[in-house]
Design brief:
Layout: E1 4-7, E2 10-12, E3 18-24, E4 30-36, E5 43-49, E6 55-57, E7 65-69, E8 75-80, E9 89-96, E10 109-110, E11 114-118
């Protein structure tokens, strides 16, 4: 199993921005970001096909968040703009080796997560 290490979380005011990073020990077919708010189930946020570059977004972040990869395809980013209090949660980086890269797919490599808190 590959290693994924997230960074970049923090506390930000509503309307602010954060960029999350995920350093990967290996590049798999799909990489994505998921989040879990307190007392809620984990949900998919955004994902990317590392080969073709296709991206997938949950409706609730479309237009505000952007997922991207560095040129070496070993660092995954999530640029989060116009953050809302409901975006608060632990954000996880994940990867999978085959199949669909949709955020509804099952990912098998997971990072430890980074906390994002949106509060005034």
């Amino acid at each position: 199993e590959g290693q994924l290490v997230e960074s970049g979380g923090g506390v930000v005011q509503p309307g602010g921005s954060l960029r999350l990073s995920c350093a990967a020990s290996r590049t798999l077919r799909c990489m994505g970001w998921f989040r879990q708010a307190p007392e809620k189930e984990r949900e998919g946020v955004a994902a990317i096909n590392t080969g073709g570059g296709s991206t997938y977004y949950a409706d609730f972040v479309r237009g505000r968040f952007t997922i991207s990869l560095d040129s070496a395809k070993t660092t995954l980013y999530l640029q989060m703009n116009n953050l809302k209090p409901e975006d608060t949660g632990v954000y996880y980086c994940a990867a999978k080796s085959s199949g669909s890269c949709s955020t509804s797919a099952v990912f098998h490599d997971w990072g430890q997560g980074t906390q994002v808190t949106v509060s005034s």
